[in-house]
Design goal:
This protein has 1 helix and 11 strands; from the N terminus they run H-E-E-E-E-E-E-E-E-E-E-E. It is mostly beta strands.
Length: 125
């Protein structure tokens, strides 16, 4: 019985370790006045070891870093993305494509102003 309990606890620990992945929490969505577009406010959390794949948006994306982290870009270069950093990603311009390294989760507030009825994110192949 002890072996069964130990095996169960070990499996639960492995499962919870793999359960950490990028979390997107939509805070608010509204129509952009006078346009056929949505404004979407989201918090994105990318834990260490997870990647945020290269992608585009059908509109603009503003990003504010709530909690910074170190990013590894293709080729292995590591760059800081510090708390308080801000950036704007233009319509249909590929961005991201990084892995969070170190021990800190990257937490960002994003605001998308995108075409209504289209997926907010289109992942690059």
């Amino acid at each position: 019985m002890k072996k069964l309990v130990s095996l169960f606890l070990f499996a639960a620990m492995i499962s919870s370790a793999h359960a950490q992945s990028t979390v997107r929490t939509e805070l608010k969505r509204a129509d952009l006045t006078g346009k056929d577009m949505d404004v979407i406010v989201t918090v994105v959390e990318v834990p260490p070891g997870d990647t945020l794949a290269r992608h585009i948006h059908p509109g603009e994306e503003a990003v504010y870093v709530i909690e910074g982290a170190t990013l590894e870009i293709p080729g292995g270069t590591q760059i800081p993305f510090p708390t308080g950093a801000a950036t704007i990603n233009a319509r249909d311009v590929p961005h991201a494509g990084f892995k969070v390294v170190g021990d800190k989760t990257l937490k960002m507030l994003t605001v998308h102003i995108v075409d209504k009825g289209k997926p907010v994110t289109e992942w690059m192949k």
